[in-house]
Design a protein that fits this description.
Length: 779
């Protein structure tokens, strides 16, 4: 609010310089402003009030005011401090009902208020004064919250121009002085045909010094709002509205559908639809960089990932929208391609990139398990075919995250010199920028692909907090389990199988390019959330996280239990897209799950105990018998736990002990008679674990059928077992590294700024003193 109110100060100063006489100019603005009965300053303030009003749409203000919320008092203090400050909100009032069956009805009003003028000098004693109060036919918030909030408040704005400001933005006095010049751009035909309907301005990201992640996001956002939007506006002419401080031709947009669309789900990224709408109705969107507005970006990995998930979901819905369809049909060929690659095409290309990695690894898996890989390894034409090896190795480059940093280098080079750009680029790589951008690749792919497959995009609140805090292991698991961890483990199994049975490229440069880059992607997707987590390797935090994880994974779900409290509630929520998906989405989900059966089909023929039957179908059939027996054993243990664990604990323990002894006996017999090796046991795990996961995905896709058969409880128990195994696989390396104190120190110093590092050290010292006092009090 303070930053935006610089506009009024700038207008007063400019009005003073325009209207002041020579004597007043010699005295100076401050001296004239201090004079209480100055006609010149009264005139300047009147001009400023006539040209500028700041309307904040705070839809909860009426509820906060009635409940005595401190936020309402803060808003009232702001209105008192800044006379041009207005608050628009939706007031919900209970009125007597005209229906005999009801006593009261809820009546909704759209209200605009300002601070009432009082004689008291204390701002806390002020009251708000209603300027306009308009009765609504019902609740105005039906679609997405932000655009509905804008649409109800736009009627209270006036003038010819309207600037939209996000709540995480700031402004500066020197920039506010440029607004008068910027508004003159509306009078110039920038394309030679049409006047502008939206003026775009650049942003200054001021949160880059908090941590390395904040610095990466700051550079990425800076490159987008400068070199990116500059090219989009001219020569590509496909710049739209991106939720930034753009200035609208208010009269143009009021008569053409408003400044944002608010339909539920489809308009999740509501801002860009204003640009689509303006362009479709023969508007012209320009970009101007001589003025900038400050903006604070997300500073923690979880906040950044939630924001990128929201944007990816929004782009998925844009892909399905009629606006993109109409733009694609009405643009010329080159402008259509520009529009595609600068909106949904970026996310679609990212998804194709990740799919290419999957296709490459599954293709290699087929060559390895079918025996073709060994045959190719002995062929001279293949071994000495350098172009083919280079083409195969080029697949590895698609994951190199530093390619995402190239636009940043160009913009930093243009503004601060290419030597600075090169040094910043090297420093970013040392602070693991490649890890961050490779990780964000998975976020974009997962949420964009899931929206296309099942729909059901939803708004994800990031909090936009400035505080960097330690995220618990369970919180990270909930957020990244399906988007990164499951996919990372799948790629890891593919690479392990390739390492065990692969024959080609041993010792070659191409082999190193392929495997190292793939392993880098796997390690990034599995451990980046813990690497960028403050105090992620501090031993006491690890112990607390493990306790919290065990509590979360073992809690039973139910009606009203939040996903943050129970694994079952979270698991049910994760299946939400499947419930809303149609038949095509369900069939595609089942077809995609069939890929997990490839491991079992290929690996069972590579066991030492099945070499003499490597052509028999009975081997594959017997492997399914083994899986069914294992599932039956799990079902028996689940039933036994439910029936005997409370009253007949001895019986339940005897059953578990009998199953364990039987399992060990079978392994000993197979080792002695059939010559089964340790490698065979490991290969069986690699074969059967993906098969069980594939069965689990199919069961989730056809949940009504599974519930009808009565096996949903077994599916839930199997899913919990897989979640526990994945949690152990992720937690073990982190706990091992946390044993060494220097790992935590190195992480803090490398990834966070000096002030935050010192704050962490002080908090540890104070935390240690508190624990010492607590133990003394107990003694």
């Amino acid at each position: 609010v303070r930053g935006m109110m610089y506009y009024r100060k700038a207008l007063e100063l400019q009005a003073f310089l325009d209207n002041a006489k020579d004597d007043d100019l010699m005295k100076g603005y401050r001296e004239i402003a201090d004079m209480k009965e100055s006609e010149l300053m009264t005139e300047c303030k009147a001009i400023a009030d006539m040209k500028f009003t700041y309307v904040v749409s705070c839809q909860q203000y009426g509820i906060q005011k009635r409940s005595g919320d401190p936020c309402a008092h803060d808003i009232l203090r702001l209105m008192t401090t800044y006379p041009s400050f207005r608050v628009a909100y939706i007031d919900e009032v209970e009125a007597p009902s005209q229906d005999r069956n009801k006593k009261t009805d809820k009546v909704y009003y759209s209200v605009l208020v300002k601070a009432a003028v009082t004689k008291s000098d204390d701002p806390g004693q002020s009251l708000d004064q209603v300027i306009y109060k308009i009765k609504l036919p019902g609740n105005a918030i039906l679609g997405e919250g932000k655009p509905e909030n804008q649409n109800h408040a736009i009627i209270f704005t006036r003038g010819e121009c309207l600037q939209t400001i996000d709540m995480n933005q700031e402004h500066y006095m020197e920039e506010a002085l440029k607004m008068r010049n910027l508004l003159e751009e509306f009078l110039e035909k920038h394309d030679g045909v049409r006047y502008p309907s939206i003026l775009g301005v650049r942003e200054h990201i001021f949160t880059g010094s908090v941590s390395s992640l904040a610095w990466f996001m700051s550079n990425q956002e800076t490159s987008f709002v400068t070199i990116g939007q500059r090219v989009l506006a001219n020569p590509l002419r496909v710049r739209f509205h991106y939720g930034h401080p753009d200035i609208f031709d208010r009269l143009f947009h009021l008569t053409r559908g408003g400044i944002s669309k608010a339909s539920k789900i489809i308009n999740l990224s509501e801002d860009i639809f204003a640009g689509f709408n303006s362009t479709l109705r023969e508007g012209n969107v320009t970009h101007h960089e001589y003025m900038q507005v400050g903006k604070g970006r997300d500073v923690g990995l979880n906040q950044i990932s939630l924001f990128e998930a929201k944007i990816a979901n929004g782009n998925g819905e844009q892909t399905l929208s009629r606006d993109i369809y109409r733009l694609g049909h009405r643009f010329d060929f080159f402008r259509m391609l520009s529009c595609y690659y600068t909106t949904i095409g970026f996310y679609f290309s990212t998804m194709i990139t990740v799919w290419t990695v999957y296709a490459f690894l599954y293709g290699r898996l087929y060559l390895v398990l079918s025996g073709l890989d060994a045959a190719l390894a002995t062929g001279k034409r293949f071994v000495h075919n350098t172009p083919l090896q280079v083409a195969l190795a080029s697949e590895s480059f698609v994951q190199l995250g530093f390619l995402m940093a190239l636009p940043m280098m160009m913009e930093i080079g243009l503004e601060r010199g290419f030597r600075t750009a090169l040094s910043d680029f090297v420093l970013m790589q040392l602070q693991l920028a490649s890890v961050f951008f490779t990780f964000s690749l998975g976020t974009k792919t997962h949420y964009y692909g899931r929206t296309l497959l099942h729909g059901g995009a939803e708004y994800r609140a990031t909090g936009r907090g400035f505080v960097v805090f330690h995220a618990k292991f369970a919180e990270n698991y909930r957020l990244y389990s399906r988007s990164h961890f499951v996919k990372g483990i799948e790629l890891m199994i593919l690479l392990v199988v390739y390492e065990i049975f692969g024959q080609t490229y041993r010792g070659a440069i191409t082999y190193i390019f392929i495997t190292v880059s793939m392993w880098f992607m796997v390690g990034t997707w599995l451990f980046a959330p813990f690497l960028f987590n403050p105090s992620g390797f501090e031993w006491q935090k690890i112990v607390d996280d493990w306790t919290d994880w065990n509590k979360w994974i073992s809690n039973r779900g139910g009606i009203g239990v939040a996903p943050e409290k129970s694994w079952e509630s979270w698991w049910d929520k994760e299946q939400g897209p499947l419930r809303h998906s149609g038949k095509r989405g369900t069939i595609l989900e089942i077809l995609l799950a069939l890929r997990f059966f490839i491991y079992q089909y290929g690996l069972v023929y590579h066991l030492n105990i099945t070499k003499q039957y490597n052509q028999s179908v009975l081997v594959y059939g017997f492997s399914w018998v083994v899986i069914l027996v294992m599932l039956l054993v799990m079902k028996t243990v689940s039933v036994g736990r439910r029936r005997f664990s409370a009253e007949f604990q001895l019986v339940f323990r005897l059953i578990k002990g009998l199953i364990f002894i039987t399992f060990i006996s079978i392994i000993i017999i197979l080792t002695a008679i059939a010559h089964m090796t340790v490698l065979d046991i490991f290969v069986c795990i690699l074969a059967f674990m993906p098969t069980g996961w594939g069965l689990l995905l199919i069961a989730q896709a056809i949940k009504p059928v599974v519930e009808m058969v009565g096996l949903w409880g077994s599916v839930k128990a199997l899913a919990r077992g897989y979640e526990i195994l994945m949690g152990l696989l992720l937690f073990t390396p982190i706990a091992f590294l946390a044993w060494f104190p220097f790992v935590s120190e190195f992480q803090t110093r490398m990834l966070f700024n000096q002030a935050f590092s010192r704050g962490l050290q002080i908090s540890r010292i104070l935390g240690g003193h508190k624990k010492d006092r607590a133990t003394r009090n107990k003694e």
